[in-house]
Write a structure and sequence with these properties.
The chain is 54% helix and 9% strand. By secondary structure, it is of the alpha/beta class. It has 2 domains: 253 residues, NAD(P)-binding Rossmann-like Domain (Rossmann fold, 3-Layer(aba) Sandwich), CATH 3.40.50.720; 157 residues, N-(1-d-carboxylethyl)-l-norvaline Dehydrogenase, domain 2 (Orthogonal Bundle). It has an 8-stranded mixed β-sheet with strand order 3-2-1-4-5-6-7-8, sandwiched between helices. α11 links the parallel β7 and β8. It is globular and about 70 Å long. The N terminus and C terminus are likely disordered. The structure holds NADPH dihydro-nicotinamide-adenine-dinucleotide phosphate and 1,3-dihydroxyacetonephosphate (13P). One of its GO terms (cellular component) is cytosol. Pfam families: NAD_Gly3P_dh_C, NAD_Gly3P_dh_N. Its main location: cytoplasm.
């Protein structure tokens, strides 16, 4: 059997020279990105961190990794270097694999397309998803799934949710005790399964975790300080992921609330679409703040119904990711919303984006689940009505504003019957007073 890792290594060495001198288009992109480099205080922090070895010095990586290795089941010969595989050659898989390689982990990025693997090894760059960003020269590339995961300690999955189950099925025959960590933020179409559910379904024996947080891939490639959360019931796995990815630019916090962390990452995509749409209507900061915090209320309400701890939504994977994705045009979900707000159809917006926007499917899943189970999710239902039932956005937004009286944080003061009866009185008064026809199906006191 060929060893694709060795092969790509020599490819890299052979082609590097060409890449630096001939690809004018990429040089242009790099110049453009360099122009956008952080400046001032941020630039100072980054420069200092680089000079001091990416901030891992104090952590004494080999000591941490020896400790991790001692604890991890079925861990093997060389405990001084964690061995990692990242599956998925999009922007996030690439950014995370690059972080790990830069930290000195033995890292292979698996990409399904052979030509893309060749191009990445040649240029040390992901031209399609992260053009202009040079990748660490220790990062290895492979399109051979078996070889990519062989002898690894941890396999990180960064494929879109629609490919998650299929990817697990494909690696199942080659597993020899590796742990699995999902980086995917979505729900399986039609089953409402989260990625951890799919892991338990397909690989019931495997030690697993999920990682999620405010991690816009391009900002990570620019060394902009960021943080994330690894959630797992396995402490050794949490430690291993922290040790593998931690640097002065990237902090990895820990949690054992897998459901909460995972739902934060999946649900915020719905609200990023809503916020992108609101931005297209030039709404004010008060409106954005209202939308953001009522989105958080929906997320935590839904999370609790699904078995999550509501406090998890106050962490990086909840409010942290919600804020990042709802504020930035780097978010693909936000961009989809913005295109919708400017009058495009959902199909045209998805086509124009040409990348993964998990929220498009998540809205449908959550709308259906919440309707079936009677979970109060007015923003999700409103968004569904605009996107999939062709309701007018303005009417839907006004309806949301006219929804009944509710408590602010329902885990502090429950939405009780006095609110419900007040709402009913108001509703009756407004029904008899006007004949507004811009309704949605929302019942605010369901
Ligand atoms: N980008 C980000 O900032 C972040 C993304 N995430 C999450 O990570 C996941 C992946 O997103 P991201 O990397 O951004 O996506 P991208 O759209 O950038 O890339 C998707 C990648 O998945 C590959 N792919 C698609 N279908 C399959 C399949 N059936 N088998 C194997 N590979 C496949 C694509 O290959 P091809 O090019 O050949 O189609 C491509 O390499 C999503 O769930 C996302 O929510 C999480 C945090 C941050
Ligand atoms: O999850 C992300 C940032 O944390 C990326 O968001 P998008 O998938 O909307 O680009």
């Amino acid at each position: 059997m060929t060893n694709p890792i060795q092969k790509t290594k020599s490819d890299k060495a052979g082609v590097e020279k060409k890449a630096t001198s001939t690809d004018a288009h990429i040089d242009e992109s790099i110049d453009k990105i360099n122009d956008e480099k952080p400046s001032g205080l941020l630039a100072g922090i980054i420069e200092r961190a680089i000079k001091t070895g990416l901030g891992r010095k104090k952590l004494n990586p080999s000591a941490v990794e020896v400790d991790v290795a001692k604890n991890m089941e079925k861990i093997h010969k060389s405990p001084t270097k964690l061995r990692l595989a990242f599956l998925g050659g999009g922007s996030f898989g690439t950014a995370m694999a690059n972080l790990a390689a830069r930290n000195g982990c033995d890292t292979t990025l698996w990409v399904r397309d052979k030509r893309t693997v060749k191009s990445m090894a040649k240029l040390q760059m992901n031209k399609k998803y992260l053009p202009g960003y040079k990748l660490d020269d220790r990062l290895k590339y492979s399109h051979d799934l078996e070889a990519a995961i062989k002898d690894k300690d941890i396999i990180f999955l960064a494929v879109p949710s629609l490919a998650f189950r299929e990817t697990l099925k494909n690696i199942a025959p080659f597993l020899t005790g590796q742990s699995v960590v999902s980086l995917t933020k979505g729900m399986e179409k039609d089953t409402f399964a989260l990625m951890s559910d799919i892991i338990k379904d397909e690989l019931p024996e495997v030690n697993f975790g999920v990682m999620s947080g405010p991690n816009l891939a391009v900002e990570i490639m620019k060394n902009m300080p960021s943080a994330t959360v690894i959630a797992s019931e396995s402490e050794p796995l949490r430690h291993a992921v922290q040790a593998a990815l931690h640097s002065a630019f990237f902090r990895v916090f820990a949690s054992d609330d897998i459901r909460g962390v995972e739902l934060g990452g999946a649900l915020k995509n719905i609200y990023a679409i809503a916020m992108g749409m609101a931005a297209a209507y030039d709404v004010g900061e008060n409106t954005k703040a209202m939308l953001l915090t009522r989105s958080l209320a929906e997320m935590s309400r839904f999370g609790v119904e699904a078995g999550a701890n509501p406090l998890t939504f106050l962490g990086l994977s909840g409010v942290g990711d919600l804020y990042a994705t709802c504020s930035s045009e780097l978010s693909r979900n936000y961009r989809i919303g913005n295109m919708l707000g400017r009058g495009m159809t959902i199909d045209a917006a998805v086509k124009k984006l040409g990348q993964t926007a998990e929220g498009v499917n998540t809205i449908q899943q959550v709308h259906e689940k919440a309707t079936k189970e009677g979970i109060y999710m007015p923003i999700t239902h409103a968004l569904y009505a605009v996107i999939y039932e062709d309701k007018a956005a303005l009417g839907v937004a006004l309806n949301l504003m006219e929804a009944g009286f509710r408590s602010d944080v329902e885990f502090v003061m429950a939405h009780d019957h006095s609110n419900a009866s007040l709402t009913a009185q108001m509703q009756a008064a407004s029904d008899s007073g006007d004949d507004d026809d811009s309704s949605t199906n929302d019942n605010p006191d369901k």
